[in-house]
CRYD protein (Dicaeum eximium), 129 residues
Amino acid sequence: KVDYDVCSNYGNWLYSAGIGNDPRDSRKFNMIKQGLDYDGNGDYVRLWVPELQGIKGADIHTPWALSSAALSQAGVTLGETYPRPVVTAPEWSRHMHQRPGGSPHLRGRRGTQHKDRGIDFYFSRKKDA
């Protein structure tokens, strides 16, 4: 399935690049967290980055953090068969050794879980509620 919504995709790319419209200070796109939240087993990455197919599970999101033995077993050589990272953001560190599970991005202010909310949730409420 191909996602083709020109405006949405353009806006998301701008946001990812850090130049999108976001009123919150110091807001950064955390690729590691997003990978764990939306591709916990790494199937999407494995589909489009065949060089990393030998890496099991969520480790595929941070191949540079694996031991040389694990990389060797997966057939990955950083700098040769897969590039070394150009930059590693400090924000990534708290997610780098996490395992996927749950949906922390849907957690409410008081720590309560919310069901996934579609657009109707935001626009179908009565104005006086």
The two ends are 38 Å apart (CA to CA). The helical segments are 6-16, 31-38, 43-48, 68-74, 119-123.
